Amino acid sequence: MARLTSDFWVSAYLRQAALDGLVAVLRRRGASEAGAIFVKLDRLDGTAVLYGPAPQALADDDGGRRFQRLLEADPLTIEDRVAREVRFDGDLWLVEIENRAGDPRLQLVD
């Protein structure tokens, strides 16, 4: 099965978050076809989690995107990590979602 473009996936993710009553914003637009997508989850309690693409070996056959937890820390530490990721890959996407429950609304790998 073909994988959704990054642009399409991010648009759907933002729309679903809005429908669920959550605040989610696109902080950085990357390459529309295949840019890596990173999601910063702000728990609104001084902690945050950064999720990034899971290794291809752990991807589903259904074409869906899978994510892994990269870092759990205070928001400033997360921002430093994001800056390093952007220097490494200028085509990445960054989405930020706020959820006190701590649910990033992503398919995660163990």
TrEMBL record:
It comes from the Bacteria. Pfam families: DUF1491 (PF07372). InterPro entries: DUF1491 (IPR009964). This is DUF1491 family protein. It comes from Bosea rubneri.
